[in-house]
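To: structure desk
From: M.T.
Subject: fold request, one chain
Message: Could you run this one when you get a chance? Sequence is below, nothing fancy, just the single chain.
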Amino acid sequence: MTSIVISTLNIWSINKEERFSEYLEHKSHPANFFNSKDLLKNRLPLIFEIYRGLIEEYISTLGQVLIFGFLLYFTLTSLSFFYFFIWKKQKFLPKYQGTFYIIHDIKWSSINILIESLLVSALKMFQIRYSFVYFKVSDYGYMYLILSILLHVAFDETFTYWIHRIFHTNRTLYRLLHKIHHKSVDVTPFSAFAFHPIDAFGQAFPTFTSCFFFPLHYDVMLFFSFITSCWAISIHDNVPAMPLKLFLYSTHHTIHHEEGMGKFRNYGKFTSVWDRLAGTYSDPDRINYGWQRNQKVKNFFDHLNEIIDKYIPDRTPRYISKKRN
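Reply: Done. Structure tokens follow.
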């Protein structure tokens, strides 16, 4: 990747020792949550002693990612499902009747978290050693911090869109990997992490790799890692809480899970930009499960959406699709 080539050729000097020291002092350092030193004490074969530091770091990172992943998934999905599908169903989803595969979704979400954590943990260690990630805002200033966020979003949106699209348009990849996620045609929050681990890692890869192409503050990377997980859960609840069509919100994703042409629409991650430009956008307004929004709020978002349609027009060919109510 770019950072490795540049540092190898000494085009850009990266003080790895200073950065690793800052990493050790960062409040999110894995050893603060899961210290593997006692776990591995006197249990490591002599042949691996030379790698003890790396192994301890990997086990600590893995423990942190696993604990965080399972807590986040089961806490947020359970709360979301209880709120929208049980307690407030008559308000938000009175007409929603579906065939739910919750056991399937929880099973594959658990498998995904377990296996993807092995890969993400290794990638996080690689980041600290070879990427452009940094820890002090003063290194580049606040203006660059804002620019780097925009660069990260553009990078993440672009690569995630095309990776996701390939998982749909390549029949082999869809059948072997992505079909697992689309067993749930009628989605619930539990569907959010229900992926084959290789599929999930492929789509998460851009989030963790933008820092190999340009400097990115470590907290920005952590923030987007967290927001990505929360966003994945929110877009599977079928409730268009903030219907600003610059973003791909829940009913966009409800369409994406439909059989037929639906699953070839709305591939984007956070925004609808690439779907609009590349001709794979589907407007979410035809999805209505009975929630009556406040008219003033509706008018406000309608006005904003007209502006978005003007400056980022939808180039998708129109097709006839059965309206879901």
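Reply (cont.): The CA atoms of residues 217 and 316 lie 36 Å apart. Let me know if you need anything else for the meeting.
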